[in-house]
User: What shape does this take?
Amino acid sequence: MAALSWPLLRKELRQSLRARAALLIENLYVLALALWAGVSIALASQAGEPMWQAGRHTFWQVAHLQATLLALVGAALAAAAITTEREQKTEDLLLAAPVRVRQIVRSKLAAAAAIVLAFLTLSVPIAVICLFLGGLTWQEIGHAYLATAIWLLLALAIGLLSGALFRRTIAAVPLAVVAAFLLDLFGRAAAFGRSPFAALGGSGALSMLQQETPPAFFRLPLPVGLATALMCLPLAAALLDSALDRVRLPHRRCPVAQRAWFSAAAFMMSSLSLGATISHQPLPESPPWDSLLMPLLSLGTGLVLAAVVFASQGLRRRDHQALAGRRLPLREGLLGAGPRAGARWVMLLAGLLLSSSAVAWLLAGPPLGVPAWRVGLGLACLISGVWLACLLAQLAAFWRLLPREWQRRAVAALLVALVFAGPPLVAWRLWGGQRIPPPAAVVLLLTDPIAGCILAFDPVAPLAGSQLAARADAILPLGVYPLGASLLLAAALCLLLRRQRRRLQAALTAGLAPPERELEEADAAA
Amino acid sequence: MSAQPAIRTEGLTVRYGPLVAVYSLDLEIPAGVVYGFIGPNGAGKTSTIRVLATLLEPAAGRAWVAGHDLSEDPMSVRAKIGYMPDFFGLYDHLLVWEYLELFGELHRLPREALARRMAEVLSLCDLEGKREALVGGLSRGMKQRLCLARALLPDPPVLILDEPASGVDPKGRYEMRRLLRRLGDEGKTVFVSSHILLELADICDQVGIIEAGRLRASGPLTELMAQGSPTRLLRLRLLGADLAQAAQLTRALPEVAEAAISADELHLRLPDSDEAQAEVLARLIGAGYRIGHVSEERADLEKLYHRLTHGELA
Assistant: This one.
């Protein structure tokens, strides 16, 4: 069976390129690039810069702009590719044709990638002009395009995830665009120190671009970039595959699995972003293998999350069987039984091993030599993350048995925790990694108590200043705050499940009241 | 007709959470028949069809289409069916031929066969002139026919059609019925659902009546009619006669189960037999009555349906 369905790929391209919006977006995009390049060159000439320097600055600015714009376009395209099938009601026709779901997903992904990469080539004339102005090499330009292409694959994965989570384009596309923008802001932009928040500390964002060395993001080591993209894409595709597969299962009203996927993906994204951020800013004294540290941690986290996602799928199927009148044995545990249980265990254990090794390496290894309390904190974060993931998987299995009110509360808690994980990062960037001033802490305490508490009494901040501590501070808050929030959420979920345990066990051990019995009784009565 | 049934289900049950949409459905539809699947809205028709089209996994039971087990070999089932849902599944930005080509290629039709089949189905569905038209620009009836053309394109032995004529004008409905009957005559198995009985009465060889997720009756139409209603209603217009007197006379006849006067007509309920009808008419003529007009009303699909169903929802 071919990996792609070429007829579907062709259809996707025809449909996307014939839409009225396609022409508009393409023209606006070209206009934006041309205007930016024109203004940049004009300003550079006015400032009396030599031509080679103007060309160099213009190219890097355009490269940044197109990476951001195309990430937004790619995420929107990928999200809409899935949801429009649902809205046009053509999803059933594709699923009823002799083509596999994964071929449909891959074809859509390939079509979106082809369109975005075609858009990427629209800036080639500007690159050629900049090349002729001097100051740039072919290698630098090629590397910039390659790094941008890898970045765009990540944006497509975000779009796919969003398309899988929502049934309507109107919900999926904005979410995909916002998520891509945030990732761009905190991931790509942060990765080369071009975050607008970083710029608030002194020099403006534009002035920071006026340097002669290529920005760090575009010096992304290829293996790291590819590993990042290749890790993210299959998981996004697998999630979407599952979402489409679930169409065939009658219990479509079980939204928790989607939420669990989303949180798993969010965790992975933050981990990837973290990996990309840290791995490209090695300290001068770091050994050469130090750059492998964070990708390794990302890979481990990704594997853990993938195992949990697949486990929750397995549990959902068995939950479905339980609801069909058969008993769900509790002893089968978190990762369930069946042919894939072994693979799930291997993934989970490998992920845990990699993550814990990387954390231990990071926190207690020779390059940093951090205090023992930090090792403990790091491990606590890891354990809390795994705990949360396990709880989410359990919750995915038992979700239907929970009262509706509890379902609503749990979703609200999850969303609040996710929302609360973001502001600390923003605030931390605003103050450049230092302890925040008391008035700001008061404001934060009032608006976001968790973030305020963490930032006002942050044990990491006083260490800021030394190079070593700066490195540690760059790492820990990114991991600590989301995982701290996850710890709180996990506690809430645990409490929730404890309160419901008796009810769940009664339902599972006594067997659910099978609807057949009700029907038979009704028949007998008739 | 081959011995193997085209569609078979055993204890097929579909659930949506606690709701049982289809309960233990047993069907056996021989190859080459037009099977009407009738039921009110919410009876479980679409759920059954979605299972047969491999779009929904049953909660219990098994099903086979064209000899292939749905749960074990869904890809083979998909290759053997032409599925038409109860809504338009169209890509507005494609041309008609591009739309058909897409699904032909998904069914892996060789290029020459695809071109030939496209010409055939466009001709069959009266869309030859619209080959180069944009799908979004077609009228509703044309879109419906294009959906059918898509379902017919791979020349599947089994057609599964969910309310194929819904929302189509009377002419379109007539043409759709004629087309379905023609496909049945060509040896295809057509599984067609509808809640509009008149659509199916003329074209079906067999019918199944489903209500509240349970099959109330299934089998050849003539057998169901015979089992369901052994009487017929005779309407007589007698010229210059006293209808009350005529009613009194006929009530005395052993063949007449019921006699009533409605406006200027005498309505007699008789056993569903030509002999009984001939005997009653001969007695009336023998008694000097002049019969100006005779019409008979047999038990039809609608009556059968109303008798078997109770207006329940799944």
Observations:
- The first helix of chain A runs from residue 6 to 18.
- The CA atoms of residues 401 and 503 of chain A lie 8 Å apart.
- Chain A is about 75% helix and 0% strand.
